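Amino Acid Chain and Its Fold in Token Form
===========================================
Structure side: the spatial fold of the chain, written down as a series of whole-number tokens.
Position: the record begins directly beneath this header, with no further notes in between.
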Amino acid sequence: MSTDGAKNGSRWLPRLMGVLLLLMGLALLAGGIKLSQLGGSLYYLIAGIGFAVSGALLLAQRRLALGLYGLVLLGSTVWALLEVGLDWWQLVPRLAIWFAIGVVLLLPWARRPLTGPANKANTALLSLAVLASGACALGSQFTHPGEVFGELGRDNSEMGSAAPAMPDGDWQAYGRTEHGDRYSPLRQITPQNAYRLEEAWRIRTGDLPTDNDPVELTNENTPLKANGMLYACTAHSKVLALDPDTGAEIWRYDPQIKTPVGTFKGFAHMTCRGVSYYDENSYVSRDGSPAPKVSDAGQAVAQACPRRLYLPTADARLIAINADNGKVCEGFANQGAIDLTTGIGPFTAGGYYSTSPVAVTRSLVIIGGHVTDNESTNEPSGVIRAYDVHDGHLVWNWDSNNPDDTQPLAPGKTYSRNSANMWSLASVDEDLGMVYLPLGNQTPDQYGANRTPGAEKYSAGVVALDLATGKARWNYQFTHHDLWDMDVGSQPTLVHLKTKEGVKPAIIVPTKQGSLYVLDRRDGSPIVPIREIPVPQGAVKGDHTAPTQARSDLNLLGPDLTEQAMWGATPFDQMLCRIQFRELRYEGQYTPPSEQGSLVYPGNVGVFNWGSVSVDPVRQLLFTSPNYMAFVSKMVPREQVAAGSKRESETSGVQPNTGAPYAVIMHPFMSPLGVPCQAPAWGYVAAIDLFTNKVVWKRKNGTTRDSTPIPIGMPVGVPSMGGSIVTAGGVGFLSGTLDQYLRAYDVNNGKELWKARLPAGGQATPMTYTGKDGKQYVLIVAGGHGSLGTKMGDYIIAYKLAD
């Protein structure tokens, strides 16, 4: 029996749905054909046909459309489950739109105008499909893919901190001490009372981005607490001394940075991660040994500036400042400053300076430098220099291209060009007499045919230098013949570890590639096994690849990417991401760069970057925030590089590589809608038990609140750029996520205890200290990160427990 449908009913709804389904089906069909030609999933081709025919039937007002749509929706549900299981965030782009359309088609206003046989099978099939997809959505709310739940179960390991002593309430170095553990012995704030944290004070530095600045202007500063004051620096290298209880400004120093070209726009980036503190009296009672000999000029500096800050500026100076009053220590070097361009040779404005705090020892100030990536094959030296902490004279220099000659460079001479550099922070063990350098590689990053023997030996690893001579004591390379920008950006962490063979002085080096290398810092021998694994081969013409790469048994690597792991906000951009994936070269981690375009995962930002990790030496627990973001690199033969092509940043756009046969185009692996092509989560917080080297817990971290046009905080787990800290009270703090929050976590189980909304991006590492009032404070710089697109600002904010 047939029916003509509702004679007077409105037919606009089924027709509207018909048009939408027809268009969406045709779009899936077109993309599905392309994907199938690349060897990808046939789902989009088949579903495209089904949805398009369903749309045509709706336009024809045929009731059969309901049954056909239900069949395609049911098939889509089964396909989605087979691909990703009950993973909510992966089910959303696969099923959400089709589920919503199914619900609309079940409405009486959509069904009644339809004609055809008046049986209930079509409606029943559609109802079953909607219920099935809805049940999947419901079931996915009780699963936690990618997360690990557990508890450490101890507050003490019978181990103590081996870091240099200082007052418990101080934070005297970027990583609190030169061991870089980011651990505070303070314990007022605990998992039981962290919810009571409230803002104690906030100030604005007045240092905001200008039209004269580069895109990648960042506020990555971790202030110090020493000498009864807080010391912070801004992106334009200004230093502020603040009252720790109120934030009131005590003094301010402005180095008046300049550039010979009159603008900072050409800089790859501009930041000041911190200043370094030195107290003449801090070494008197440390070990009872006599103080090293000091020159007359050095003695004058010691008397005039007994407490000093060392400031690396964006115009390549190192300035000594009186920590008491903010005046320049005129007796240091040349009227208080060292010109770091001495011996460096020519470079473009912004192409050389130190973005990170110097390492300070009893007698030395040790500094590396930023060298712009992928600019040319004739960049400044990556030399590491050690200056006398008192009078600023050069004591030794270590250049990876000339590693055996550490005598101070003669006047008028220059260091080797284009040697591997250290742009991040060194760590120091004065008892062993060594400084540990996390090294980058010889630019350009993706083409290494012309690298020197020194670069091939020392780059992308850690090098231990003798403090007295600057000679290399040992080195361990983590990425051989690095073609993926896997420079070591994390400050190494020095800690004593309890092992089966007894207590060992260890160095933990987090890396972009996801491995945490744990070595005996006396000689560089592995404490946790490191395996050489075979990797994909086949570099561009003229280059080569290493046959194996080093992987630590302690790592936070995710699984290799697959087509099924592609994501998107909708089925359509997910399909386009699948097409992109199939068009790129990808054979797993360390897929070589190619003219075809290669997928780099983990990407240039890395699993770990300059934020490093924090380690509780008492609990023997490592607390961190790993990231998982893929990048694309495409090698472009020199003759094909368009005139006037410009880079967007050091990690995005056309990188010129002048002097090499290839430029490279780099960008994050994103969908046409601007969301990552790989499925979330993209960022976690995690803890590792250093007794067992196992992950205790791993939780998704952060929301999309500040990453989408609509400020909805979807808890997908977003990337973070900035470090964590951990306290004796059992609370860890982190603020680097793309959403603007400072968060507190229970380090025992990963539970989020508290969070505070920030007025700008918090891409910095927090710190904690004791105020003059005896209260524990937690402090963060919230100033944003230009290239990440977080909100810019100039805030320093402190929190403490409510009374």
In short: The first helix runs from residue 12 to 37.
